């Protein structure tokens, strides 16, 4: 059973599951696990790891249109180094502070592989689900795409300054403020952690619709520095994922007012259609990052 | 740096940390990680694993005197087997239902070692800390001690029926109802997950007091079936830990009224004193389960 099938099974059994976060009495809660081999390339500092791991859960809170309130983490490692642990806590605390939440601690565990499990909480007066997109709505994405994919290339390259830049790119700002501005106005929303293409397919499945996306996508300029060619650029920008931007649908007539209230760039990349997920008229494959 | 030192560092840096759960605006949140090698002996079913992992976090909520509301878990395994995952979700859901909380789902992750990260939430109008014990208070423990240690012996022995009994013993009921009845009346409380001895030392340190404990301790009868001798019986009952009972201090004059409201047995095992942790007048070592 692959992970998507397994997640579907969870969604079928648990009424609160199946979105970026579970909703319970006006509160959202979401949990995630990241680990060394798949999520923290060689060169990732513990400060960046703390920021990114907690940020991933805060991004799920943002994707519900919720106000992030608190986060906790389990830090599991083969051994506890004081400086590394302090750096992790600093990164975790600062990403919380960046979105107005509080990092309230967590637990430690011994584990062969460095592993972090994070949970974030938020208050949602109007939680935005994945299921409300309607044909005719605009489909939009916050910020730029491809930063994490580009970071991975920089970690691999490891030239002068590459590791530091890669760490910078890895420390994304969760889009909590944008999510709040979109609450009550976006018809459907999720984060792009699985990549834009897969996110669109997931929104399409949850909403029973399709998407007609048009280039150019808001791919980050850093991708041009590391991409081998145009195909590779699209791979990093639309499929790689781990970018933690918001992908949302907004009624066309509300778009300009929403844009004015969202402090980060909100790019219209296309429209909701009846069925099919396409880019420039061609099928956009349902593939991307599998966590 | 050992785990206790590292946890101390976390407590120093984070104002909300340092107790069984973090407290934030009348809510408690706690997170924990369990994994195959140290927490789930061979023979542990996925149903028991789901129950026990989520139960461990619900126990931390109980130890704050809070009302458990919800739990989430990350289920990380080398592969996802549908029946195993369904059993895990059933166990997680049923331990939540047993204490009036809701299991609202979580996430999946690929990991070489079966690993579960759980987070539980609760509402606390009067959170009970570890720090309020006063000389003269009675020190009490809920239920019986040594069940998890005995279960481990049964898992090891693996005779006819042993594995099933061990699984039964492993599925403890988190003491949420007892914790609620103790809120506002216990002066200090924590759970016995690190073992009674270590729990007493931690309460002593947080409260700046000591404990004079007297035998007999409420050691579960199942311990007598597996213990080699009296020393081994005390080892399983007082040091092994992982029992998830509540260890609390209660003013002597309030004890009989509290007992009447706590549905589980609440055994007075001694008194709070100025300093030192003793059993029958002899020093009780500060050792136990290190997570």
TrEMBL record, chains A, B:
Substrate binds at residues 39, 242, 289. The keyword ATP-binding applies. Mg(2+) 5 binds at residue 194. CDD domains: ThiL. ATP binds at residues 106-107, 130, 193. Mg(2+) 1 binds at residues 31-32, 107. Belongs to the thiamine-monophosphate kinase family. Its EC number is 2.7.4.16. Mg(2+) 3 binds at residues 20, 60, 191. Mg(2+) 2 binds at residues 32, 60. Gene3D superfamilies: PurM-like C-terminal domain, PurM-like, N-terminal domain. PANTHER family: THIAMINE-MONOPHOSPHATE KINASE. InterPro entries: PurM-like_C_dom, PurM-like_C_sf, PurM-like_N, PurM-like_N_sf, ThiL-like. Residues 18-122 form the PurM-like N-terminal domain. This is Thiamine-monophosphate kinase. It catalyses: thiamine phosphate + ATP = thiamine diphosphate + ADP. GO terms for molecular function: ATP binding; magnesium ion binding; thiamine-phosphate kinase activity.
């Amino acid at each position: 059973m692959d992970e998507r099938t397994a997640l579907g099974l969870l969604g079928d059994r648990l009424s609160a599951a199946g979105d970026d976060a579970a909703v319970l009495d006006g509160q959202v809660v979401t949990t995630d696990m990241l680990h060394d081999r798949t999520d923290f390339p060689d060169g990732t500092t513990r400060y960046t790891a703390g920021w990114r791991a907690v940020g991933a859960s805060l991004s799920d809170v943002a994707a519900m249109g919720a106000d992030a309130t608190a986060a906790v983490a389990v830090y599991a490692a083969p051994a506890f180094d004081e400086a590394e642990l302090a750096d992790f806590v600093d990164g975790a605390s600062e990403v919380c502070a960046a979105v107005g939440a509080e990092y309230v601690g967590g637990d430690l565990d011994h584990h062969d592989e460095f592993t972090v499990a994070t949970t974030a909480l938020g208050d949602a007066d109007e939680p935005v689900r994945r299921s409300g997109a309607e044909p005719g709505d605009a489909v939009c994405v916050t910020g730029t795409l491809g930063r994490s994919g580009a970071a991975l290339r920089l970690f691999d390259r490891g030239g002068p300054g590459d590791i530091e830049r890669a760490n910078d790119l890895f420390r994304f700002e969760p889009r909590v403020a944008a999510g709040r501005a979109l609450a009550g106005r976006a018809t459907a929303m999720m984060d792009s952690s699985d990549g834009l293409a897969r996110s669109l397919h997931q929104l399409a499945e949850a909403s029973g619709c399709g998407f007609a996306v048009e280039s150019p996508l808001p791919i980050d300029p850093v991708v041009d520095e590391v991409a081998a060619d145009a195909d590779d650029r699209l791979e990093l920008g639309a499929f790689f994922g781990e970018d933690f931007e918001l992908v949302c649908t907004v009624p066309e007539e509300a778009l300009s007012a929403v844009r004015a209230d969202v402090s980060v760039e909100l790019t219209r990349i296309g429209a909701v259609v009846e069925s099919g997920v396409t880019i420039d008229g061609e099928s956009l494959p349902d593939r991307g990052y599998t966590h």
